[in-house]
Write a structure and sequence with these properties.
This protein is of the alpha/beta class. The chain has twelve helices and ten strands. It is globular.
Length: 254
């Protein structure tokens, strides 16, 4: 995880949502352009940027460490989700990847397919000295609350058990319960998933601070930055919370 860390913490800019969510729900006239997001990753001082291979091929400029998301699905298919490999580790490396990302839908009836596929990808990544990062999102009939303390900790533990170097997981809603997920990860890096756009900056920053206070390495954020009316201002807020450990009130009033 070394390329993505600064003083043991990290802030990643995720822009892999276009495949799964489509262009209508997340994008506006500005952020639909991948070049805008690539520029934001550089100017915003992010420690890494997450792209699917098509975006990486055409827009990655080498100025920020790259994580290539090597699996994906659309948002049109109904039923229990499965996200399968769409990019090889070798090809990701040829695009400049310094890390490999893969989504697992824990609790899906098809989770075994993703477990097996990630197992092979993790081994290939490690053979090339690249970290393998698992996005672990609980889904399916057996999951009634995907942000409960127990379920989020299960997601973190799954990443550990499958050999991931980092887990990207949802926030439980408070620092105390999220700390259990960090403990379940047993030393691998934990990134809070940025999630949907919040109503206020303060609401989102409180979530980030809660995760970091609980022991998270940092944040993998998308919409709450590149949907923001002033993305660079939000990036600056996040840096102050994650790296400088400043209180929310001081960050927003600065």
């Amino acid at each position: 995880m070394a390329p993505f860390l600064r003083d043991g913490r990290s802030m990643l800019l995720a822009y892999d949502q276009g495949l799964e969510h489509g262009p209508s729900s997340d994008f506006n006239d500005r952020n639909i352009d991948p070049a805008f997001v690539m520029d934001l990753a550089v100017k915003g001082g992010f420690n890494g940027v997450v792209f699917q291979k098509g975006i990486a091929e055409k827009f990655y400029d080498g100025k920020v460490p790259l994580i290539v998301k090597v699996n994906g699905k659309s948002g049109l298919v109904k039923g229990d989700p499965v996200s399968r490999q769409v990019c090889s580790v070798d090809y990701a490396v040829s695009l400049g990847a310094k890390g490999i990302g893969y989504t697992i839908y824990l609790g899906s009836e098809r989770e075994a397919e993703m477990f097996a596929e990630f197992g092979k990808i993790q081994e290939e990544a490690h053979q090339r000295n690249l970290p393998a990062i698992a996005w672990v999102y609980p889904r399916g009939a057996g999951v009634t609350n995907d942000t409960s303390k127990e379920i989020v900790a299960y997601a973190a533990r799954t990443a550990l058990e499958l050999g991931a170097d980092a887990a990207k997981i949802k926030y439980t809603g408070d620092s105390e319960s999220f700390s259990w997920a960090v403990k379940a990860a047993a030393g691998i890096k934990v990134f809070m998933s940025g999630g949907p756009k919040t109503k206020t900056d303060e609401e989102f920053l409180k979530q980030v601070k809660g995760a970091v206070d609980a022991g998270a390495t940092g944040l993998a954020v998308g919409r709450n930055v590149w949907q923001h009316q002033d993305p660079l201002a939000m990036a600056n807020y996040l840096k102050k919370v994650i790296f400088e450990k400043k209180p929310i009130e001081a960050v927003i009033s600065a």
